[in-house]
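Deliverable D2.4 — example input (structure tokens):
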């Protein structure tokens, strides 16, 4: 099954090139981890707490959380561009600080936002259509069906047009129409790839649902699983682009 082979390719990209993966991601991700842990250390009593309007958190926690979110996004973009370029072009810096191309990173940010927006619009259209068609006939008992269908639609659209992300990172920008043509007829492959990737990431995060978990330990575990999820997500897009667009073998 092609979707499974693409996932294995994304996984082996990491395991077979672990040193390169660390060089591409260690410094940016450490920056994100340090920022997040600083907030956790300063405000441990507010980490993981459900916000209550009657008992708002202190401004320092709010600004710190927002700041760590921005740093995390920046680090993810930096890692994503770097891993795409290593996997597709063999580009790797000499030291432990990966190359940072601001133009490519900003372009990647714009393409990511655009891809997510299109995927969300597709999901909203599917959910709305099914709700209008099914709820009057069967009632609210089937409301989960439109939601599941919307998730399928979002994943399908995201991965079909998402090949524009590694293309742009490699300096070979694609239009969305070109991405749709390149991924035409691969709906089953893309759904399998998306759900295996998401499923593995969710399984890794199951321990976070345990009660009475130490805040520091759970925060560190969240960062580790977040790194794995990030590298797998970027790797699946890289494998998809490399195979369907550039015709690279998966073996």
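Example output (designed residues):
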């Amino acid at each position: 099954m092609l979707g499974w082979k693409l996932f294995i390719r994304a996984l082996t990209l990491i395991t077979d090139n672990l040193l390169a993966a660390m060089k591409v991601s260690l410094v940016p991700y450490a920056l994100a981890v340090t920022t997040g842990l600083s907030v956790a250390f300063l405000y441990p009593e507010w980490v993981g707490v459900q916000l209550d309007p009657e008992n708002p958190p202190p401004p320092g926690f709010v600004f710190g959380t927002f700041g760590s979110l921005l740093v995390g996004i920046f680090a993810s973009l930096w890692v994503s561009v770097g891993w795409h370029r290593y996997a597709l072009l063999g580009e790797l810096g000499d030291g432990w600080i990966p190359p940072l191309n601001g133009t490519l990173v900003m372009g990647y940010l714009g393409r990511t936002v655009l891809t997510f927006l299109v995927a969300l619009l597709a999901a909203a259209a599917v959910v709305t259509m099914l709700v209008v068609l099914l709820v009057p006939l069967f009632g609210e008992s089937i409301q989960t069906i439109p939601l599941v269908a919307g998730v399928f639609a979002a994943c399908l659209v995201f991965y079909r047009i998402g090949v524009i992300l590694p293309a742009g990172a490699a300096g070979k920008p694609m239009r969305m129409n070109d991405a749709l043509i390149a991924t035409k007829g691969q709906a089953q492959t893309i759904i399998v790839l998306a759900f295996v990737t998401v499923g593995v990431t969710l399984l890794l995060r199951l321990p976070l649902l345990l009660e009475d978990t130490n805040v520091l330990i759970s925060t560190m575990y969240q960062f580790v699983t977040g790194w794995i999820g990030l590298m797998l997500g970027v790797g699946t897009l890289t494998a998809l682009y490399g195979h369907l667009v550039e015709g690279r073998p998966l073996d």
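The chain has a mean pLDDT of 87.
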